[in-house]
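Record format v2
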Amino acid sequence: MTRIDLYDTTLRDGAQAEGISYSVRDKLHIAERLDALGLHYIEGGWPGSNPKDAEFFRQAKRLPWRNAQLAAFGSTRRAAHAAKDPNLRALLAAETRVVTIFGKTWDLHVRNVLGISLQDNLRLIEDSVRFLKRHGRTVIYDAEHFFDGYKANRTYALKSLEAAAQGGADTIVFCDTNGGSLPEEVTRLIADAKRGLSVPLGIHTHNDSDLAVATSIAAVAAGCRQVQGTINGYGERCGNANLVSLIAVLQLKMGYHCVPEEKLKELTPVAHYVAEISNVSLPTNRPFVGASAFAHKGGVHVNAVMKDPQTYEHLDPATVGNQRRVLVSELSGRSSLVLKAQELALDLSKETPAAKRLLKLLQQLEHEGYHFEAAEGSLQLLLKRQLEHLKPFFTLEGFRIMIEKHDHKLVSEATITLRVNGVLEQTAAEGHGPVNALDNAIRKALRQFYPRLAEMHLSDFKVRVLDEKAGTAAKVRVLIESRDQEASWGTIGVSENIIEASWQALVDSVEYKLLKDQKSDVRGRRSVKATRRPRARSDRS
Amino acid sequence: MTRIDLYDTTLRDGAQAEGISYSVRDKLHIAERLDALGLHYIEGGWPGSNPKDAEFFRQAKRLPWRNAQLAAFGSTRRAAHAAKDPNLRALLAAETRVVTIFGKTWDLHVRNVLGISLQDNLRLIEDSVRFLKRHGRTVIYDAEHFFDGYKANRTYALKSLEAAAQGGADTIVFCDTNGGSLPEEVTRLIADAKRGLSVPLGIHTHNDSDLAVATSIAAVAAGCRQVQGTINGYGERCGNANLVSLIAVLQLKMGYHCVPEEKLKELTPVAHYVAEISNVSLPTNRPFVGASAFAHKGGVHVNAVMKDPQTYEHLDPATVGNQRRVLVSELSGRSSLVLKAQELALDLSKETPAAKRLLKLLQQLEHEGYHFEAAEGSLQLLLKRQLEHLKPFFTLEGFRIMIEKHDHKLVSEATITLRVNGVLEQTAAEGHGPVNALDNAIRKALRQFYPRLAEMHLSDFKVRVLDEKAGTAAKVRVLIESRDQEASWGTIGVSENIIEASWQALVDSVEYKLLKDQKSDVRGRRSVKATRRPRARSDRS
């Protein structure tokens, strides 16, 4: 099977999408997940263009890379000498094995944007590539606007590729930067261009003509062996070629090898994960991975699919980690629920009434807007509460939050009354906002009972509006990520009231920590009896 | 120029999309708009399958059709005799000039879904077409699953097409019903099939492989002269081929004639109109017609586009009724700002101290977490406040919000004191949460001064945590989208306190509306002096 190298640029080109802005932490999370998926190259950013990207490369070095090579992105030199070019120096400073630089192929750009002679541009392409090669980098050369350039001035466009090859480029990538090319043109132009080149070839397209996946597969058929794109097709204007679709099409329909076979079922969770971090909702009709991608509505279709799924499904949804849905009468994965329970060492088999009841409850909650994929902490608590009759660590009597703005000063204060093992605890705390005040008040009320709560802090807090049309009266979903020294866990709350949703997620976050410690205390006592310390456990008995 | 007939099935296949459900009125509205756009066929529904569709056909007869022919959709007969088949009778009862019927091409479907012999299926295809022809209809035959059927049993698939031709079909349409085919297959299979046919050909594809536009244009290149699809690609699972993209690609890039040249600029408004009626928001990155389709963010791109738009635009956005937008973000520079000011008819040139000061202010705000590319309303207000010394429409004296949870009941109440032209207004309101309560209180306090605020509502509310490490004490960014009958606008607020951030975004949202109306009032008064109505303006002077 011919291997196709996947080159992801979600962190650079994807971040050019309107409305997307990644923190360094976001980028690290995404990079780790894409590495695990088995992608071959992950472009981390343009270190010469902004300090955030440079910081990413500093931190990314410490990640335990398993599959992917990290690539830094930049332009060919602008300065007279490569060694003095700040952009090329920033690329070297990123200390990646792979460097990708783009150069101008289109004479219009050379003249009107760079404002230099055609000859000079060829020189700086060759120079820049050679400079990076001399510093031991694998160099990928992105021929910006290749197709437009070829159509405007074929001879010059081809010369620019030769310059990159002369400089020693390891791969030359044809870019449909403006996204205006048709598959038939891509096939024809690459066939012509590759005659003069003995360098491995790649393709990078944009979706401005709604054809990015098609132009990419046309280029692969024409001989390109590296495919650049972004998860979910994020990117400037109409986005880049969608790597998720491309992996599925290339591997499942065209017989190329992209990722290990068993990774294909990661496509759906990865697409949703990256959407979540990008704080963008994934359109439900997204090919392969959308919630509706294998949803059947019409009666004719539903009937036929029940007889034989291939009647209205082009592939088995499980292959890409998605699932069939029958709209109205929802049928879903009891087996995945059983699998999850096993993971937690909970006793649940597929045929029990408990499994049926749990599945119904989960479906009900998901219908209300809960989304447990990003909130495993809450899912675990839910299963344990249902299957093991988990006793709560505390109960709420009531809380009150006051936010007052006057003379440009804003004060947020929460008072709370909790009951722990029959003991009533009432306290109050201020905060930077209502949720922070509530968070502070809970911890203050609980700390004498459970001192180890001091080890934990909230590391992420996300709010998403579910029913956008309802404006400020809409249902909101709050996702909280918490961590202590050893672990991190996600919890969730859903309500029309952001305070109530935050409360649910905060309670789960605290209970998860207490439950986790309870278990590790038990384990700890078994293995190292001598080193027993006084623990929160005793407060509870 | 070769003419391509456009066949829209938004009202039938589009309505199969998860979450879409049209009333008869919705359907009539959409049909009128698509007729005006110059489409050739509009499929109104399946009259045999539900009474709503039959009602649509009754009412649609009265519309003043200018360009399109209305088509009724149904299946080949199931009953022993065509004349007694309820489905075919319902098709005739719809009284459309055009009838489209689908038949089975794939032997698997004939055997396992219809449960009849292969021979019988051929007979009922031919019969059903002939019956409709005898009743004077133009008959379009949809060969369901043509490509899958061909791959499973080529001989039989081709025979089924011959049966339709024998029956007298006016057009035979190759359907990629499951959306699993590749462009290359479409080209090859149609080339083979058309050898035996002298009937005009059409194509109908689905987007399950992210290739629906590509397979459609491949079919046109292979000789199909009718293209079926839906506006915005609505449809079951991953949707149908997007007619909006197809019109643009076929006419602007491939030189076919689809709609009168002057209608192309209707593509953007039509796409948004149909999205609005479908109650679905149009993804901003939608090719040709999305709000981001010609939006430029990176500094390099913005600079180049200012010199020459074709450097990063595959076509002039005005051609399809869209427009260029410059996103002002951390990635861009002073030229973007100047361009944005020009867009707003504000006086700002690149070299003035005002431009430098504004840029510094913007960079400072973005550093603090503001993100104006998603909040053009706030950006406009900011520029106008800075450059035109905009007078505020009201000032805040103070507000207080109380959220109380007790006995599982949660109450949110806001009290607010505002000053409008010296008049003090104090009021209180409840809400589904603190922000909704505040929103309600502001509107209640202002409505006597500015009655037109009643026209506006909040259509989206997004919250993003900026500094995740800080947990619930983190800075949050609130983005609000508001709309009235004519427009929508985004506003932003940033603070460690979600209530303060929401307050900022709410104030901008209201001020934007008031400023917009002020301007349109002035315009209105200039042009139609006689029809002046009492207006909010008077409250302010």
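DSSP finds 18 helices and 16 strands in chain A.
The domain at 5-259 of chain A is CATH 3.20.20.70 (TIM Barrel).
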